[in-house]
Amino acid sequence: MNALIVATLLSASPAPTPITLQQAREEGRQSTTALTALQDLEVSQQDVNIRRSALLPQLSVNGFVGKRWLGRRQTFDLVPDVNNPGEFVQISVESKPTSTGDYDLGAVLSQSIYDRAVWKQLEQAGVLRDAQASQAKEEADTAELEAIRRFFTLFRTQSTRQVLDATVKRSEEQLERARALFLAGRVGKVEEISALVNLGNDRISFVQSLSQLVTDQGQLAVWLTRPGTQPVEAVDPGVLQSEPGPAPTIEQAISVAREQRPLLKALEARVSAAELERAIARADYIPKLSAQGIYTRQGPDAGQVFTEPRLQNNVIARLNLDWNIFNGFITPAQTKRAEANIRKAQLQLAQSAREIEAEVRTAHQSLEAQLVAARLAAENREAAVQGLNLAEERFKAGAGSTLEVRDAQLSLTQAELSLLENRIDVEIARFTLMRAMGALMSPGETK
């Protein structure tokens, strides 16, 4: 009956796609948030290339074709004085309108020889790229942890349904026993009716859990950038069949976090970038030296400029020295602003380090508490199994009632659900601690 109900509810849905924990971790690192961080890293890499371009030779070619019109104009020319041989006089001359061609072809080659600001800007871009790489790793760890959490949430719902299904089967068996004992005249009709009501309630709980299953399937699929309509199934990672391992010491956890946490590396790099900003500001005190070569061809005739290489050639080579002696106190102001940004970056780094230590301690304490809770839950389940066996034996012997069996069944169901909940919480707490430590790496991945 129970299988028939489930088959009816799921008949319109396609078969779920199995997903292992390892697949969830790998695909989680390719989630939208993680990929967005990688695009930011690509932007940072291109910023490095942009800064490097200022140190490479710059070559530009230009040319134009035009026409120049000159209107009437009056000029003064020196001409010999006919009355005084050997002397000259100025006379006013009015020229006619003229027009000439205007053609130009040229190339300019520039090369920076020394510019401290440009070199420091390139170094700063590299540091910011490294900071973004660490930030991308931080985002990937966060995305992977969320995928792990959603995977275990789905697996917990699947396992919960298995517990509820087993409860339904126990209720069906109890109904059959109560009915047989009633027919044998050993118990009253009320025992059969109670068992029937209990079975109905258990079936309702099982059917209602399907809604949570579909919700958890959708949340995992969407986070893994799969279609939200695709049903998925969390493959048993085997955690329920093995004893959980111990937690690392708090000293080990904090030490690893200080060394490996990507966020700390990103913030350390931003401190270095702020220090380089100060060096860039101070570079205004130092002269800049560059070389430039200019080649041009100009003339009023297109043939001379574009087809006659021996004519109209002009070449200029020069060294440019630029030294900003006084710029209205901009450089000291920019230096002080950079120093303030250095202090801000250092304060943020120190604060984040303290917060990460607190995060590690909290995650560590949570894992230890969950380990204890899981052991207690396992002991409770064993006791509940013994209680149910005893209640069923008493009922078969006619010394007990359906109510006693029902209480024992509920106790076992609650104990099984509690064990399931705590055992999965142990795994989530363990991965949360690993993420806080910066040690959340998929197999084959390197720092």
TrEMBL record:
Keyword Secreted: no
Keywords carried by this UniProt record: Cell outer membrane, Membrane, Transmembrane, Transmembrane beta strand, Transport
Compartment annotation: Cell outer membrane
UniProt GO cellular component terms: cell outer membrane; efflux pump complex
Gene Ontology MF terms: efflux transmembrane transporter activity; porin activity
Family: Belongs to the outer membrane factor (OMF) (TC 1.B.17) family.
Name listed for the protein in its UniProt record: Outer membrane protein TolC
Biological source species: Myxococcus fulvus
Lineage: Bacteria, Pseudomonadati, Myxococcota, Myxococcia, Myxococcales
